[in-house]
Write a structure and sequence with these properties.
Layout (H helix, E strand, L loop, with lengths): L2 H11 L5 E4 L4 E5 L12 E6 L2 E5 L3 H7 L12 H12 L3 E3 L2 E5 L5 H41 L5 E5 L12 E5 L6 E6 L2 H17 L4 E6 L7 H8 L4 E3 L6 H14 L3
Parallel strand pairs: 9-10, 10-11
Antiparallel strand pairs: 1-2, 2-3, 3-4, 4-6, 5-6, 7-8, 8-9
Helix pairs in contact: 1-4, 2-4, 3-4, 5-6
Length: 262
């Protein structure tokens, strides 16, 4: 099969945006529109090895995972390791010492590329699912902590302004009420949530809603510096983590509840 036929097969089986760039003898970079969650494109190479064509990620997928997950958490026998192994097996992709490869059988180049792209996407999802589980635990811990420290009749979760926000675009994770200025409390596990909280607080300022604000980060050190700087300009009080600051947060809540009773 010639190069044009291979490219046409890729486009037919995967998508029109696939292209091939020569990088030497019997070696081609396969460009696709598919990306990891950090914005980098999937790295895929078509090359001839021992007389046969193979597609390989040249170990870039696991390299991306290693930025977010410890290597030991991806080893065979671990939960994530099992998810990865099952994903690779379902698409007939082999893990060769960290390199994901698939042979091209019977000149079915498009089928091989489709399978490798699907496998890379599934494997990269392991980091996303892991982060979502962590975020879910953090939010549950956040809510449980507030329930233990704030009377039930003074606590509302996912509060929105009926007057200014009828479509509920700007929810507050928790509102502590029955105060002249209610306390808006945000649980912040990542940059996306910090940005959303910043936008919400800016809108509350514009609408002249009386409030005071507090934020509890899952881990403030993981937040982008620029994102954090914008947020601290509009938030009254923040804590870098929940677990390390529970006594301080409890004391602050007790003080503000007594001081600001309606």
């Amino acid at each position: 099969m010639n190069l044009k036929s291979i490219k046409d097969d890729f486009k037919h089986r995967v998508c029109e945006q696939v292209d091939l760039q020569s990088e030497g003898m019997d070696r081609y970079l396969v460009t696709t529109p598919f990306r990891f969650d950090d914005g980098d494109h999937f790295s895929i190479v078509l090359k001839r090895e021992s007389g046969n064509w193979i597609l390989t990620d040249e170990a870039t997928t696991f390299l991306h995972l290693s930025y977010k997950i410890d290597d030991k958490d991806m080893e065979p026998g671990s939960h994530r390791g099992e998810l990865i192994s099952n994903s690779l097996a379902s698409f007939s992709v082999t893990n060769r010492d960290g390199e994901l490869i698939i042979p091209v059988n019977e000149e079915r180049f498009g089928d091989a590329l489709f399978s490798l792209v699907q496998a890379i996407a599934k494997v990269s999802d392991v980091s996303f699912l892991s982060r979502e589980r962590v975020r879910s635990t953090f939010l549950e811990d956040f809510r449980a902590f507030l329930r233990a420290n704030v009377p039930e009749d003074r606590l509302s979760f996912d509060w929105t302004s009926e007057q200014y926000d009828p479509h509920q675009k700007y929810p507050v994770d928790a509102q502590i009420n029955h105060m002249p200025r209610p306390l808006f409390v945000y649980a912040l596990p990542n940059d996306e949530r910090v940005n959303a909280a910043t936008i919400s607080l800016l809108n509350f300022e514009k609408w002249k809603i009386p409030y005071q604000s507090m934020a509890i980060f899952e881990d403030q050190e993981l937040i982008n510096r620029k994102v954090l700087a914008r947020f601290t300009d509009v938030c009254d009080k923040s804590y870098s983590s929940l677990d390390d600051n529970k006594p301080r947060i409890s004391e602050y809540l007790e003080r503000i509840l007594k001081k600001n009773s309606a």
